Amino acid sequence: MIKVGDTLPAATLMEYSEVEGNGCSIGPNPVDVTKATAGKTIAIFGLPGAYTPTCSAKHVPGYVEKFNELKAAGVDEIWCVSVNDAFVMGAWARDQKTEGKVRMLADGSADFAKATGLTLDLTARGMGLRSNRYSMLVKNGKVATLNIEGPGKFEVSGADTLLAQAKA
To answer: 55, 138, 148, 162: which one is catalytic?
Structure first.
């Protein structure tokens, strides 16, 4: 499992773009994790699934709400990573009003979750292999802080925790 001090694994996430620009076409576009984190401080939070109750009611809204404070604390970008396809993440981004604040990144085949060791097996609940709920502060591709939730919990991966860590 990934830990503080480790470099993020080389992986490609997908992001749905509503408008064409900055080298991105409309629709799903690849995001190379290594290139996208180089020279930046990124707040990344992972969660089990789009439109799920805790994720939609608490996790994503917290980061949208704390966007300005996280930026003021030196965070360049905020990423939400989930084992869903880019189309679902794009629709969820519209629903959660994340545009310009939180990048909603799809880990469709759970490659990033597997590479970090942050998987959650929800097969018994009909959801298959998913991402565990976590947050991390990444500086220039390296994990600076890591907060992994226990099963069914939402106590340490919210925006308040990561904001306090970014300010430290």
So the answer is: 55
